[in-house]
Amino acid sequence: MLRREIFVTYMIVVLISLSITGIVTVKAVEKYFIKNAEESLITYANVLQSFLATELAEQQNPSIQFYRNIRELSKYIDARITIIDMDGKVIADTEKSPDAMENHGDRPEIKEAYKGKIGKSIRYSSSLETKMMYIAVPIKNGDRVSVVLRLALPLSQIGHLSKYIWGVILSSTLIGTIIAFFMSTIFSKKITKPIEEVAKAAKEIAQGDYGTKIPLSDPGEIRALAESFNHMAENLRKTIDELKEGKEKTEAILGSMAEGLVAVDNRCRVIMVNSAAEKLFKIKRDEVLGRHLLEMLRNRELYDLVNDVLENRKNVSQELKMITSEEKIFRVNIVPISGEKSSGAVAVLRDITDLRKLERVRTDFVANVSHELKTPLTSIAGFVETLLDGAYKSQDHCLYFLNIIKQETDRMTRLIDELLFFSRIETAGIAIKKTNVDLVEVVIKALSVLQTAIKEKKHKVNLDFPDDIKPVLSDEDSLLQIMINLIDNAIKYTADGGRIDISLEETSDHVVVAVADNGIGIAENELDRIFERFYRVDRARGGDVRGTGLGLALVKHLVKSLEGKITVESELGKGTIFRVYIPKV
Fold first, then answer.
1. Rounded Cα distance, 528 and 516, in Å
2. Global pTM value
3. What's the CATH fold of domain 435-583?
4. Which of 110, 150, 419, 579 could make an S-S bridge to 82, C-beta 3.0–4.6 Å?
């Protein structure tokens, strides 16, 4: 690779040098010949100026002999001669008839001559189809310019000369390139051979042969490189031996621990991690050894604890929240370590995330159940006290209060039944009896159960069922419970006179049941939590809608038991769509 780079570089330098030389040479030659042609034309123009001034002064209109004379002069100086009057009209020309020529008053060289100066111009002639050089001089009658003499010379000869020079340069470049090819090959080989020996030795060391040595060459930079490399190889061999010895001593300890272990030196650089830590933090031992603790875990709180242990040499035990692939809680125990040559600290991290989650779930469960039971009990107690205070004497009041007490009792009964059902799901599971179930009939049954509630809120229910929908192999009771809960939610959280759309759609693997409403909707930040037990949407939006908060949690469990899935889409103020995917088989 290096030899090729040197060769290519050398060849590029040669080619660029030859190209620049050729361009500069051609440009210099062109400039020289153009300058020479210009000076010649000016000389001829000055000579002809006096002659033509005399001829034109003697005769008002040029004679035939005059035209013959300027043609002879044109052949002699090998240049085109044109005479233009002060109006720009051509009165004589050696190449074309003056009557056939256009007005020349706007030519740049003619304009300069009108001012009494020598006009110069180089441009392409469309009539002659070639690049021309023009020199114009004024012919005066006294102090006034009477006519302009213009000489024109084609520059095609200079173009031919440039092509010839380019041919010579290209030939020289080709020969130079061939010579440079052989020279660069020899030169690059001489330079890269010692470097190739170093690369070969490095490859052998990388394969485990730490005794490899590079032969020392003649004094110079390459010899110094070889000596440094040999010294490095020896140090590397010693380091590898030390690392192998240390690894053998700690391998057994690291492999037997269930907790994550991270050891750092006195500069807080990682010197050891066990397999449990690799799994916990999704890291690879070979990638983190020698790196700073913050680079590995990126947790400032853990780093501060470790740093405190390194400075104060005291044990630390504390709980920490850390983000790995997700947020986890760890019980961290850190102790200092000391040695003859080094010191540091060892951190043992025990994942207690599940334990804390169970504690939080238990606390939330107790709080939620207490709240849900306390509300109806408080209501019942209040109405009982009212009855005892004498309200029982009025039959109307007594029946009214007893009906409310019954409603609250029924509410507590439903809550306890649902809790018992959840307990059975989470311990023993649900007995699933799969049969061919007609989903259309399941939806119709659910609607009949909820018909009274639909009529009370004056909702309009739209059904969209394909004619060819096939039965699914599933549990009818579970599907009925799912549909009752989803439709009941749509009824409760949709204002009176709302719309509920229920549709069935068949895919290759599932039958999809969709329940959509145009109710209050669910905030985006609440969508992830609506399937939690006892969770209810913001009461400010839900109004006085009553419920246990267990319905959607129950739906999620039932769908999971049927090996299906449930999704939700919602927008505040516009409505919600629940989709249940039931496997066909």
1. 18
2. 0.43
3. Heat Shock Protein 90 (3.30.565)
4. 150
